[in-house]
Amino acid sequence: MYGLQVQASEPIPGLISALATSPADVQISFGVLPEWLTNDAAPGMPPWYVSADSTASNIPILRIWALKEQGFHRLLYADNTEFVVDATGSRVWCRWPESLSLADTATYLLGPVMGFILLLRGITCLHASAVAVGDRAIAIVGPAEAGKSTTAAAFARLGYAILSDDVVTLDERDGAFFVHPAYARIRLWPESVEALYGSADALPRLTPTWDKRYLDLTEDGYRFQCDPLPLAAIYVLGERASDPAAPRIEGVHGRDGLVTLVANTYATRLMNTVMRAREFDVLGHVIARVPLRRVFPHTEPARVAQLCEAIIEDFQALTSFRGG
């Protein structure tokens, strides 16, 4: 996933198993933490990071400690699911309360934890979904609840292959930025499932303890893009409009483009100064090479297929103008 070969002590829900062709990039141990780590909930020092969002009991959704002596990070979620990640993003340990399951833990692992691991490994990512259009990828960018996953699912229903649902890698190689496949699922809130399929129960729950659903891209009628593709355009979901012209699309240029991408990088609050400097350098190159477009969807959810068609029409015009 995300261009990394992962070896885990148990099968990970949502991932496709494969024979190892080389040593694993990331090793994951489920159900345990490192022996040297104290069993206390907090490692005896102030957290390096505390999320702004909290539970109804005023417990931060996520706290992270930097264990400087060992060069590790410890991530503790409000439900007491814990992860320990080494300094290079190569070893991961995790455990969870008896009331939860591996499927619950995978919801953290496949998104925010892997986003943090990619940061440690020097790969900048966008908070986005990615769709294969021919032999290239387009990214659908936007903040939480902007409609990225819903748009990706609508593209999937139209027959397009999907690379990623939430985290889009910007892996620079030979003058291009490659998007690596993530995992063969799209996660959707019940409201989105109902808008797309007519009923929230049309898709299964991710876990019994969570109301979010998932679209399995390995099922008949859907496609998962298993190979990386060069990123050819970025579409930023903007404010929804009710006027007849929506959905409409316009270009984003210069400083506005850089600010827009900075605001939509993944795990941006977890970056240190070195990561932040690397991010600005990468995004500067992206702006110079990849067209950035702002999309104004219609307020009516039923028009999401029309949104996809508008994006494809715009992308085809872009590629024609740029010589393919």
How large is the share of residues in beta strands? 25-35%
Give the CATH class of the largest domain. Answer: Alpha Beta
Main sheet record: 7 strands, mixed
Helix content: 25-40%
Query: What is the helix tally?
Result: 6
CATH topology of the largest domain: Rossmann fold
Number of domains: 2
Oligomerization state of this entry? single chain
Write the H/E string, N to C: EEEEEEEHEEHEEEEHEEEEHHEH
User: What is the CATH homologous superfamily assignment of the largest domain?
Assistant: P-loop containing nucleotide triphosphate hydrolases
Number of strands: 18
Looking at the overall shape, the CATH architecture of the largest domain is 3-Layer(aba) Sandwich
Shape: globular
Provide mean pLDDT, rounded.
Answer: 88
How are the strands of the largest sheet arranged?
Answer: 1-2-7-6-5-4-3
* Distance between the first and last residues' Cα: 29 Å
Low-confidence stretches: none
Strand-pairing-aware structural class: alpha+beta
- Rg value: 20 Å
What is this structure, in a nutshell?
The chain is built from six helices and 18 strands. It is an alpha+beta fold.
Topology record:
Elements lengths: L5 E3 L17 E5 L18 E2 L11 E6 L4 E6 L4 E4 L5 E5 L6 H19 L3 E10 L2 E6 L6 H10 L4 E3 L2 E7 L2 E4 L5 E4 L1 H8 L7 E3 L2 E7 L12 E9 L10 E4 L2 H9 L10 H17 L2 E5 L7 H18 L3
Parallel strand pairs: 1-2, 2-7, 9-16, 16-18
Antiparallel strand pairs: 3-4, 4-5, 5-6, 6-7, 8-9, 8-10, 8-11, 11-12, 12-16, 13-15, 14-15, 17-18
Helix pairs in contact: 2-6, 4-5
